Recover the amino acids of this structure.
């Protein structure tokens, strides 16, 4: 489990947090208004994370692609549902 700390407190205790991560093997999650912002992990943990298969990344790309392809058919209803005020439209074909 990770140790959570507000960003304001993390600023004041950065050196101590780094020591907890490096020497204590802890993982620290820095929060703002109770929501996670960033995580402090050791360089070894980061290497292990980077070596994981990119299956999750492929799922995200697939999801984004499917949302993009359906957004033109659902139109204003989806934009309103998700609180989107604008959309990108590619260059017009002439």
């Amino acid at each position: 489990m990770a140790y959570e700390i507000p960003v304001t407190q993390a600023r004041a205790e950065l050196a101590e947090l780094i020591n907890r991560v490096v020497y204590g093997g802890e993982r620290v999650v820095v929060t703002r208004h109770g929501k996670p912002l960033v995580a402090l992990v050791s360089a070894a943990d980061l290497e292990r994370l980077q070596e994981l298969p990119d299956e999750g990344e492929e799922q995200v790309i697939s999801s984004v692609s499917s949302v993009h392809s359906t957004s033109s058919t659902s139109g204003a209803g989806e934009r309103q549902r998700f609180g989107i005020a604008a959309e990108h439209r590619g260059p017009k074909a002439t």
About this structure: The CA atoms of residues 2 and 27 lie 5 Å apart. Residues 3-51 form a domain with the YefM-like fold fold (CATH 3.40.1620.10).
